[in-house]
Amino acid sequence: MSRKLPVRSLGEIALAELAGSIVGAIGSMLQTTYNFGVEPDFTFLIVEIKSYMETMGATSAIYEDLLRVILCSDSLEAVIRFCCLQTLLNEAVHTLMTEIFPFTYYERILQVIAAQGRGLRQLNMKGVWVKEEFMCFMYEIIKHLPHLTKLTIPHIANDNLLKHISDYCKNLRHLDISGETDITDIGLEYLSYGESRHNLTILDIGSLGEENVCHTDIAMLLMNLDNLVSLVSYSFVGRSLQYILDNKDPAFRCKLVYLHDTGTKAKTMDAIIDTCPNLQDLYIDSPESNTLVKLSKVNLRRLKLYKFNCSELLTLLESNGNYTRHLTVIKGRGTMEIHRLIRCCPNLIDLDFYMMDSLSFSGDHGFLDLQGLEILSSPISQPGLRNLLSLSTTLKRLAIDSVTFNDEDFSSLMIEKDFYHLEDVWFTTAPNLSMASVEILMDRCPELQSLGQLSGWSLTPDDVTLLRGILKSCNASLYLRPFRIFLRPSRRAFPLAV
Predict the structure, then answer these.
(1) Residue 321 to residue 285: CA distance in whole angstroms
(2) I need a surface site. Which of 108, 214, 282, 352 has the fewest CB within 10 A?
């Protein structure tokens, strides 16, 4: 049986109680003012709550946890969440995510952050899309938050905002200005030569797959941001590096650890290899034929490919696959021979196949420590799939969109092999698997935490209701998922931990 639900810690219970008390007090006052038909005035209540928190010795972590729990609650009215932001944000708070608010609250939220958020190190404003009429408040925020190390403001940046960032954010290491924005070469020049350029290591700019920022402007950033290790969303970095070598500095070298390039030509691949000695993570979209082989001397930890030739990839990995830990392949042409891949990359931890022409497996050896396997829209024979799974007992995560096993096939596999590490199983369509297969998963996989998509299995709604009742009565932590939304594989970028 799956693990039991853990007992809530005293800290979690206390946090929930405190958050409930604050929200309850604000909600009670709000209801009272509604009953009397007057506008709510929270001034006195805010003072009382702040005084109580200070008297009880609330720490920075408590304020941050309260804001996190309250601001992300969809069930709370915007006025209550805003009042909590106004009450709890102070110089002790180092991390703030605004979450989503109605447009009518934008101005007040920006004013509160500028006035009370001086201690912030990390600010995420994904839920507040600042319009031009409120941009003056964003400028004030940048001026009044000198300690910022991470700023997330997608879709709203303009040249003037970049000037303020470059002038005032001397400690900034991670900046997210991705998406469709009003940035021009003027704003990027501010960023390239301003005070923030010395510490900036991660810059998320542009939109995946779209060249809405000119590669020559990206080249300017690469030449001036000395410690830059990733441009995250920008998908034409190779073109920028080639431009630098051809037109600016033939001896240029950078510190990029991750890059994404599209339509990579042989000369562009040479530029990537020459200028990026620290490269570990690479995403190549639609490379020209016979281009991948140039990576034979680059020891990549992560590799992601889109629209490529399978035989070229296998030839490449035969020379350097021992170093690869994460491999994602999408729309590979030809047959991907997984048994060859195992010989080339025995140390893979994660392996994802999306929309491949064909997969085959006929070996008798598996990966040494494979923890994640996804096979989506990629045909593979049932014997080949069964053989592969039987040799992958280290798996923690398994996702396959179409499974033709019946209960007997699946039960024999689970009984013959010990899948003691499995935490997440996802079969989109498994019309021949019934309650018996669910039960054997629950019985044979002690770490199982999540199971889906059950609507594609041979289960009735009554079966799922019964299973949930059994899990609840046993206090099991297994979650039965009715559905799951996959990200478009061709647009999934690597997570980058720096």
Answers:
(1) 19
(2) 108
Give the CA angle between residues 479, 483, 486 to the nearest 5°. Answer: 110
User: What single-letter DSSP state applies at residue 2?
Assistant: P
Give the H or E element holding residue 48. Answer: helix 43-55
For residue 67, give Cα distances in angstroms to 80, 85, 93, 98: 12, 7, 9, 9
**Which parts of 368-483 are beta strand (E)?**
372-376, 397-402, 424-429, 450-452, 479-480
Pairing between β-strand 335-337 and β-strand 358-360 as defined by DSSP bridges? parallel
| Bridge partners for 205 per DSSP | 177
What is the Cα gyration radius of the chain?
Answer: 26
- Judge whether 117 and 123 are in contact, CB under 8 Å: yes
3-state helix, strand, coil in the chain (%, to 5): 45, 15, 40
163: tokens are: 């000037």
- pTM of structure: 0.90
Distance of alpha carbon 187 from alpha carbon 157, whole angstroms = 9
The three-class DSSP label of residue 208 is: coil
CA–CA separation, 255 and 265 (whole Å): 22
* Contact between residue 94 and residue 124 where contact means Cβ atoms under 8 Å apart: no
Of 140, 141, 104, nearest to 125 by C-alpha is 141
Q: How far apart are CA 266 and CA 456, in angstroms?
A: 44
The structure tokens 């002038």 sit at 167
**Rounded Cα distance, 102 and 128, in Å:** 8
**Single-letter amino acid code for the residue at 187:** G
Helix (H) or strand (E) holding 330: strand 326-333
- For 340, residues 6+ apart whose C-beta sits below 8 A from its C-beta are 314
439-467 confidence digits (pLDDT tens): 999 999 999 999 989 999 999 989 999 99
Q: How far apart are CA 293 and CA 312, in angstroms?
A: 7
Task: Let me know: does 497 contact 360? Beta carbons within 8 Å.
Answer: no
Looking at residue 238, its amino acid is G
Q: What's the token pair of residue 94? A: 């180092």
Q: Residue 372: which of 391, 347, 399 has the closest Cα?
A: 399
Question: Cα–Cα distance between 323 and 301 in angstroms, integer?
Answer: 6
Residue 284, H or E segment: strand 281-285
Per-residue pLDDT of 106-127, as tens digits, reads 999 999 999 999 999 999 999 8
How remote is the C-alpha of 305 from its chain's centroid?
A: 18
- The rounded distance, in Å, linking the Cα atoms of 373 and 384 is 14
d(CA 493, CA 235): 10
Q: Bridge partners of 4?
A: 476
What is the residue-averaged pLDDT of the chain? 92
